[in-house]
Amino acid sequence: MRPSPSEPERRAGTFSVEQLELKGFSRSLAELQWLLVALVILYYVAPNAHIREPGLFVGATALYAATVLAHRYSGLFQSETRWKLALETWLMVAFITWLLWQTGNIDSPLLNLYLLVLIMSGLTLGKKTTILQLLLIVAICIQIDFRSLGEISFSTSTLAELMTKFTPFVLTTYLVTLLAADIRFSRTALQEASETDELTGLPNRRAFLEALRREYERAVRHERTFSLLMIDADGLKPTNDQHGHPIGDRLISQIASTLRTTLRGTDACGRYGGDEFIVLLCDTPAGRALDAAERIRNAVRNTSFDAGGQRIASTVSIGVATYPADARDLDDVVIAADHALYRAKEQGKDRVVGAGQALHRVADANAAAPAPREASEPLLRTA
Fold first, then answer.
1. Is-above-0.85 flag for pTM?
2. At what angle do helices 330-346 and 205-222 cross, to 10 degrees?
């Protein structure tokens, strides 16, 4: 049977890899924003700093710092999004552009502050957005140069000067987006590996609980229903004892393969631990869920494989619970399916039992049977 859930697994319903990543990006962006403010202050106090209007320069810097404080610490944003990060980078572009206008246009020593924007955008917002920001920065610089000179001369010397100024921007954009693509590829591969059961190729417990939480929230929001099947392989231990664990692993893989071929494309299935599987049937009421469970039970019962001249087969016991018919809280739905599975095992295995009712020769004396196992703590609810 499955092990007790760990704390990270109990919190899997609210855990989001993307949110964790975005929060990390947001912290990094905050450090770059304050680095930008610090560099501006250092430039202001530096000897012989050329500033057109010092009062406006200080005021704009103070306003930008206040905007960062309000944007980041006022609590206006309950969660991190890429749109929020994009807005913050656009604000950085606007602030740096104002600084250039105050400190010598494109000849300003602060021109390379745009690199902070390109680096952050490349790491967080993707290649297309970063290229758009690069083009915007180049257009801004050309416009500033035009306003200061009154005209733009596309002579060889002018083009060489522009290339000298913008080559660091282009190279930085290229290298950062290249690095970001490699990071995203590695992260995707690691995330897939962390969410996949190695033996069966099915989503593991944590990944399944994330999908279950999302479906629960959707069902509550749109007043829909779903059903949960808790499935236990009946013959794994005898198979391991008689034929060895490699054959037992093969049996588990076969059951997983049977589940894949039996379920609909809209359903979700995962390995819950040990010899247990869990299935989510979206938009499925209790009656149809019981029918689906019967199809799974029969499919597993009629499937076998050869191992050293012997036919290896197994049966499964299945507990079924439906939201909101059997429970309205997600933890309670999981517990109801778990209790139904317990009754199925208790009544002789190789059967389907629904929460609140029983199938296949359930005796009237079932009420006198030992109480089903109680969960020591909620499976999904966070503290």
1. no
2. 120
